Structure formats: structure tokens, C-alpha cells
From TrEMBL:
Gene3D superfamilies: Leucine-rich Repeat Variant. InterPro entries: ARM-like, ARM-type_fold, Armadillo, Hsp70_NEF-Inhibitors. One of its GO terms (molecular function) is adenyl-nucleotide exchange factor activity. PANTHER family: HSP70-BINDING PROTEIN 1 (PTHR19316:SF18), PROTEIN FOLDING REGULATOR (PTHR19316). This is Nucleotide exchange factor Fes1 domain-containing protein. One of its GO terms (cellular component) is endoplasmic reticulum. It comes from the Eukaryota. It comes from Micrurus corallinus (Brazilian coral snake).
Length: 165
């Protein structure tokens, strides 16, 4: 999946990996043994939009269904990598990256602490993103993820919501 020149082959390979790791424990163990999370990260950094979306979605699914992997992902620098992806030019792909980041920090203090690192400047990024997305229905889920991350990591609400209370 990492090196094939064909976009279609890479996307189909990711689909097959997704089926294997979500359907059976042996597939997940092989995925972990072969450093599958690094492969997913490289896929999210590719120029192929469909591959980026599907890999971020799979990462989020794995985090939800296998929270025991959160420590491994944090030790790999996944928080920093995901934040860097969110900083890239705005795309519909960001919804899935933010969803994965939400899953990574939910009920996981180490993930929250990493999001709070000053050099990431994540709180400011999330507040800016909330302003950008507000009142745009097509980005509602992404906005929800931003607001959830602000609440979980920084115990804050977007400014507009605070005025309503």
C-alpha cells in the first residue's frame, strides 16, 4: 500500500487492510506487528484524497474499538502528526483527522497532555477553525470535533457559545 504507483491499488489495499483488522483479532495483530499505524500515517500524508480520508477513518475506528492502542500511538508522536495534518490547507479530510484526535484523547490523560503542549498551539488552532466553520452546515461534524477537543483538552467552549449562556 505504501509504495504502489497506482492510486486505485493503494486505495483497494487500504480497504482490504481495513476489513482484515476490523473483522478479526489475527488481522489486527499482524497489522500491529508490521507497524500498520505508521503506514496509516503515511497514507494520511499522501496527495490522494480518498486514501487520506479512508486511512483517517480507519485510525478513528481502531481507536474507538481498541483504546488499548492509544499509548502506542502517543509514543509514536501521533498527536503531533495529526495536529500537523489539521494545520494543512483546509479540506473535508480534516473532519476525519479531528475525529481520530478526539478518539485519541477521550478517556486518555496522556493524549490530553500532549494536545496541551504549548508548541502545538492547538487551542488557538481549534478556536480559529471554529470561527471558520461556524454557520457552515456542511462542516458541522468537523465543528463538533473542534468543540469537543476544546472542551476535553482546554476546558473551554468556543467564544460564541459562551455568550449564549
Amino acid at each position: 500500500m505504501d509504495h504502489d504507483p497506482s492510486e486505485a491499488v493503494r486505495i483497494k489495499a487500504l480497504f482490504a487492510i481495513s476489513c482484515l483488522v476490523r473483522a478479526q483479532e489475527a488481522g489486527l495483530q499482524q497489522f500491529l506487528r508490521l507497524d500498520g499505524f505508521s503506514v496509516l500515517m503515511r497514507a494520511m500524508q499522501s496527495n490522494i484524497q480518498k486514501l487520506k480520508v479512508k486511512s483517517a477513518f480507519l485510525l478513528q475506528n481502531l481507536l474507538i474499538n481498541h483504546p488499548e492502542q492509544k499509548e502506542t500511538l502517543c509514543s509514536m508522536g501521533m498527536v503531533q502528526q495529526l495536529v500537523a495534518l489539521v494545520r494543512s490547507e483546509h479540506s473535508t479530510f480534516h473532519e476525519h483527522v479531528l475525529g481520530a484526535l478526539c478518539s485519541l484523547v477521550t478517556d486518555f490523560p496522556q493524549g490530553v497532555r500532549e494536545c496541551q503542549e504549548p508548541e502545538l498551539a492547538l487551542e488557538e488552532l481549534l478556536k480559529e477553525r471554529c470561527q471558520l466553520l461556524r454557520n457552515q452546515e456542511e462542516f458541522q461534524e468537523e465543528l463538533d470535533f473542534c468543540e469537543t477537543l476544546l472542551r476535553l483538552c482546554f476546558h473551554s467552549q468556543p467564544e460564541e457559545n459562551n455568550m449564549d449562556r
